[in-house]
Amino acid sequence: MGSGSLSSTGCWPRRGGVCAICGGDDPQHLDHDHRTGEVRGILCFNCNGGLGQFRDDPVLLADAIAYLKGTTWQRALIHPGVFQMCSPTRGRHPSRSS
Prior knowledge:
This protein is of the alpha+beta class. It has four helices and four strands, in the order H-H-E-E-H-H-E-E.
């Protein structure tokens, strides 16, 4: 969607010309709810595409966040001077409650 359309929505001036998710400059995508058609905001290419890849599903986005938080590998001291790399989830997908 062109930037001419963005300025007519009323969202553009309120956001100061930055992406509503990441704050990046020069967002060019009018984000809307695909079920209702309601406009949610102005997004950059990456954030708009990211929401689309997750089908605008908050549950899938929450699962992705849990995955990112729960799969950070950490060093565990198993013997003086000996470390083992391990994941907090030990290879399992983290549950939504964790």
